[in-house]
Amino acid sequence: MKQFQPVSFLLAIFAVIAIMAIGIFIAEQSMIGIIASIVALFIIIGIGFARKKRMREKGML
């Protein structure tokens, strides 16, 4: 079984929150909120992929 990684877990939770925020802002018809949530989602996912790449290079995964 793989070791629990709290940072990866938090990034996944933040990504889910950003996706939920997109839905909420669509319901509220707030274009600024939708765009901000999408940008936040891309940043969070980018951080997660960069972190995973660094961990693979170090041999931690």
Quick tags:
61 residues; mainly alpha; 2 helices
**Main sheet, how many strands, which sense, barrel?**
none
Low-confidence stretches: none
Number of helices: 2
Percent range of helical residues: over 70%
Oligomer: single chain
Helix/strand/pairing category: mainly alpha
Task: Estimate the global geometry from the Cα principal axes.
Answer: elongated
Protein name: YlaF family protein
InterPro entries: DUF5325
Keywords: Membrane, Transmembrane, Transmembrane helix
Pfam family, one: DUF5325
What features would you describe in this structure?
The chain has helices at 6-28, 31-58. The protein is an all-alpha fold. The protein has a domain at 25-56. It is built from two helices and no strands. The longest helix has 28 residues, at 31-58. Helix content is 84%, strand content 0%. The chain crosses the membrane at residues 7-26, 32-50. This is YlaF family protein.
Q: In short, what is this structure?
A:
This protein has 61 residues and is mostly helical.
Strand-helix topology:
Blueprint: H1 6-28, H2 31-58
Helix pairs in contact: 1-2
